[in-house]
Protein 1
Amino acid sequence: MTDLDIAQELPIPVERPPQSTHGIVDWLRANLFGGVFNTILTLIALYFLAVAIPPLVRWAFIDAVWSAPNGQACHGAGACWAFIGEKLRFILFGRFPYDQQWRPLAVVVIFVAMILASCDRRLWGRRLMLLWLAGFIAVGVLMWGGILGIRYVETGLWSGLPLTLILAVVGLPFAFPVAILLALGRRSKLPAVRWMCVGYIELVRGVPLVTVLFMASVVLPLFLPPGVTIDKLLRAGIAFVLFAAAYIAEVIRGGLQAIPRGQIEAADALGLGYWQRTRLIVLPQALAMVIPPLVNNFIGGFKNTSLVIIIGLFDLLNTANNALSDPNWQGFATESYVFVAAIYWSFCFFMSRYSQMLEREFNKGRQR
Amino acid sequence: MTDSAGENRVGEPIIQLRHVDKWFGDFHVLKDLNLEVKKGERVVVCGPSGSGKSTMIRCINRLEEHQRGQIIVAGIELTADVKNIEAIRREVGMVFQQFNLFPHLTVLQNLTLAPIWVRRLPRNEAEDLARLYLERVRIPEQADKYPGQLSGGQQQRVAIARSLCMKPEIMLFDEPTSALDPEMIKEVLDVMIELARDGMTMVCITHEMGFARTVADTMVFMDRGEIVERGPPAEFFAHPESDRTKLFLSQILSH
């Protein structure tokens, strides 16, 4: 014991780790040309980049036509971005009344603002919940109208980017709590609850989303009493939520199973009830563990919204498709799809970055 | 603290196990156990692994269910009634071999969680309480760290403080030093000895016989699901009656 005390008193000389590499040449040698095999791989990769990039740059920028009076004048060696300029409002907002399109524009701005606000850790909690609630109300008012002196627009005319965002950004937060309940139910001690959840998850997972949408759109009305109609967008939204929930539930169940037994026992021993234990101890750890597959599902869900085309809703992909049918602007499918792909990609890329931030945030406790 | 003072210190029975039986499948883990712990009494339970000692103390706060017999804790009988179970868990603190701190919460949050959500204390009161107990387990400066940043000994002391924040009547210890590196055992035992001095009712499974001699009012030896022998530590260590006890003591005291 005294030996230990003395050892702690002695000053310990500080030694720095040796410098590993310095300079660009060392880095290149270490990372790109370390050995024959790596050198060959590097050269092959460089060759493919050299073949692919210049024509792409030429098509997209150097030879591109940026403005043209009509489609005829726009056909050249490069991309016709004039087409996107001409059809921009239609692709983004579709069939929404032309003079009212400031409203869907405002909706997109609100969505983007809310998503960005959610990145700020300081806002997390009740304030962010209120912000989202207010945002949803504002979106509803702007899209529907009929009050505050703005014109009523039926949901059949909602289209383009706002429709895609409404399905995804409103749908996924609804799917998430449903998924949590399904995952908890699947691990419940009560057989009735457990079997209902298992049955639901297995049923929905075994069916393509297209079928679920089709059922919601065509088959469901057959079972409703005459005179009762449910809005088509709402039906698609519910179908989408129920479908996404089954997948997300399985991801969350994976996280729940990874929680050590001791965590639950410690919570029990402290006198926490089931819901307190679940909310305060189990879910925060389980969800933090499954962020990567969860975001995978969210990204998939976001892109899955494009399937509502099957029941005649005009989401972003469908409006881009429709923009191609203008007789004055023929043959610009590539430009149209590249443009829409870029929009999808930027949202998905953002989700991916956001998830990495969340992972860092939630795994603080596990770092040394 | 002398033994004569101990006689006055202990009071009414606070834990009673009467003819308790439990099976894991077909395996009979607890066989007709009878045990009475009085308020303020310190009971140290020892025995070979698989003897059922852990299962027994886990029955006291219903982490395990007994299948026959009666368990009465702080005047409440343990049945399937969730209300009773939660009432008893509020009065019984437990410290685990593997600490079981909540890794996603800071030390302070670990300590204030149950007082806030179960005892319904206001946050600032719960935090004052937490800091008080961190002081008592001698790590007040670690309040804002996460459990993963602490040593094993520090984590176990946080776990003890976490239980104490609920102001329990009884503390159960399930091999609290078995997962620790040797140089950290003492810091945890010191905290437990201090707790014993303050008159806490304790049921402690441990193989630290030095600690048992210092602290225990009663030694209990379990083997194969039965309580084989019990008695004050002086007699227990000097003149064990049963051969099984003698064998066990010779094995753990020989080195």
Protein 2
Amino acid sequence: MKRFFLMLVSALCLQGCGGGAANNTPVATGAGADTLISGNASVQSQLDVGFNSSPWAGEVNVVDLVVDSGPDGPGVNRLYTSVKICQPGSTAVCKTIDHVLVDTGSVGLRLLASAVPVNLQLSAAGNLGDKVLLGCANFLDGSFAWGPLVVADVKLAGLTASNTTVQLVGHSDYRHVQGQCSSGDPIVTATDLGANGILGVGLSQQDCGSACDPQSRRSARNGRYFSCVDAACTQVAGSALAVDKQLQQVVARFPTDNNGLAIQMDGVAYPGVPVARGKMIFGLGTRSNNQYAGAQVLATTNQGFLNGALSSTNGVSLGNFSSTFLDTGSNGIYFDFNLPSCVYPYDSGFYCPLADMAFNVVLSGVRSGQVGASFTVSNAAQLLSRGNFALPTLGGSISMVGGLDLGLPFFFGRTVVLGIDGMSATGVGAGTVNGPFYAL
Amino acid sequence: MPVSVGAALGEAPFTPGVSEAVDGRVARYEAAKVAQGYRSYTLELNNGTVVQEFVNSNGRVFALRWSGPDLPDMGMLLGSYLPVFKASVQAARQAGKRGGPVVVQAGGLVLVSTGAMQAFSGYAYLEPLLPAGLDVQTLLK
């Protein structure tokens, strides 16, 4: 009798376990890549139906960008797009998630687990039999993104990054935080983040690179990747992760149009608007719509920096900023300058000059070539008090020697081209160019 | 749940083998450099970020600064001052400030945290614990 019972149980297990059947309820949270991790969304959230489940109708390599109020919480100059994730190989078991931040300052796709429907089940990343892997990303304000890594097909416009590692942030089954993702505030809801996720489209190919690869000396204690120790994931340990298994630059994983991207934003006039629009165009020199022969290439340092020579509009030099970077994830233009700071309630490091201050900047990279540009800093209190969400001339201090953060306001009315590290492109300036670079 | 484990502002400096919960995160430790009115120690964290601690004549950490590819754990660096940091960033978030550098000046704590991925830097100090006559801004530059 007993032997028959055991045989029956194992037969059920063979059919139900690790098979990915749609009805299967994942039980073990720490077991490996045969674990299916479901989204955490409220019961209202469903898989795509109707329009969102139809094939992409627009240009194959172009998605819309928007700056608006966002899903929740206060915030200005937040650049958003919609991202579609699917079970690998499927075009039906998918969810289109709106208001995902487009961030040229980071790499990898992180989605709130609460934005993913419960009936979208994705395999845990990692090798079969290994424990579930988790990611940790810290932000300046002490918030952190903690959650399991899964594998999904990531679709943007008509392009698919197949079998791509994605982080599900704030998943309720994986709340046992560790290390650097412990003292701060965990990101769980759209209010915490001001978005439903972050699409990092920075210049690198991975989130961490060799410092987290098993070949590297200190890789298991990198602070970015962890694995569950027990099946219920009540304990985690630091883990190395091969570069091709880390969070990836999604664009580099497209089968075509994968060597870079451009961010093209409409101009925004003072004092700002409630909604601003733009486009993200994938690929450099791969189609008729991504040719940038007139752009000047600015090759960056390995950390992604340029040099910015600042001057007043009548040509007076105002200094060299050797850590200049372009970052759609920053909501203002941040640099240290003798401008008055705002007073309460806008006193969080923004500038409040009495009149507009206009600046010229000559940007140059580690190879020859330079580009002249200009930007203006207005009184932040005036900008912030009108209820607009796209503010063209918002500036503040950065408290970083040589730092010039050309955040989202710099992108308004411009096309900024990003060349991904390790990729080469024709059609940007003259000849063939290797990443990493910006081009204006 | 930050635990006072040494190495934090206002506490005794990091001591290898003694500062237990922190030990696992410190890859390299350099003993004190002595200067006028203070000593400094250098810690290299496992994530490659370097932290420099400044200790006054009472043996308490009055300032620290960091620089490196990833952010240090604020709980580890700020200890009992972590709630001051958290309250300050929460207020900034409510005022619409997101995604930029963090500046805190409250409850005796002065902190700046800035940078971008792969290149973070910052400093923090406690005004009540500064050695007399020390120009802390020049020290932390």
